[in-house]
Design brief:
With 375 residues, the protein is an alpha/beta fold. The chain has two domains: 3-112 and 250-319, FAD/NAD(P)-binding domain (3-Layer(bba) Sandwich), CATH 3.50.50.60; 122-248, FAD/NAD(P)-binding domain (3-Layer(bba) Sandwich), CATH 3.50.50. 29% of the residues lie in helices and 26% in strands. The protein contains nine helices and 26 strands. Strand 6 and strand 7 form a beta hairpin. The protein starts with 7 loop residues before the first strand and ends with a helix.
Amino acid sequence: MNSASKPTVFLVGAGHAHLHIASQAKAYAELGARLVLIDPGQFWYSGMATGLLGGRYAPEDDQIDPGALIRGAGGEFIQDRVEAIDVAAKTLTLGSGDSLRYDWLSLNVGSEVDIGALEPPAAGPSVWPVKPIPPLYQFRLSLEQAMRDTGQMPAVVVVGGGATGSELTANLAGLARRNNVAPNITLVTSSGRLLPDAPAGASRALARVLADYPVDVRLSIRARRITARGVELDSGECLACDHVLAAVGLQAKALTRQLGLTASRAGLRVNACMQSVDDPSVFAAGDCADFAPRDLPKLGVFGVKAAEVIHQNLIASLCGQPLKAYKPQRIWLAILNLGDGRGLLTWWRLWWLGRVADRLKDWIDRRFMSRYSNK
């Protein structure tokens, strides 16, 4: 059987879930099918992105080569970007202009930041969305160079006080400490407290950590727009700054909303088997999937857990067998790296602040990376 006549499963995007499926490529080959991963480049692990910004990790610590991973497991890799998908014709159009036909398709393309009203003017502070990850490293290099040159940290405003914004803020302060300068950071959030979805005690503990750095935290106020001087708040005050880190407005990448299938900013609407509610040949996981049975937080743990279910369901689809439902956990572990050797752990209504939590997070992250790295 030549490759053109083999059933073909395309994985679009090298996200958390697709790394696992790519590592299982041999199972598809044994069924006479092709497993092909399409992605423009390296996988950057979001779990270590805050530590990358804070100077704890080097860029190579945070990257996996998805091409080496899937080829080593017996699959195929195309280094390109999917520009369009025609679900009626079952074809993908790549950035190169090539058109490819699929039998089954899985999307794991992640999310992006819609900065919306925070679009900067032509002359003004640099704006750094929290995704994609590689620019965060460039942000770190820019700050480090400025701190070496001036002995001061350029003024940074972080917009967003959820887990991502808070963790990045702590690591920016940690970066200043590593460079022996005082932090010059203001965090702005419309919420009445940091980490609004976490236990109140964890929120208060985080506030104390940021106050000790020190970081200026502004609660219950919204960033209205970015001006040539800095960030203008709803109160009319303008926070002068050199850089803005945007940790709000996270949405699924536009590709998932351009298929003609049910989708929203939350992602492609999928059923319990992680299939599109409109098209059983299309699957999705991670930040680009909107799980119909219940709302799921946009956390990597759910993409990782869904990976095995999607893998089993793709194999079942190839074999004409019944599919398995994904049953996400109701309670999950979350740990924030606070940039000072401590971590903030939350699990259900419990929380813990300390070095043990940080070491546990580092162990979990490094174990994930080693599982799929060819280094």
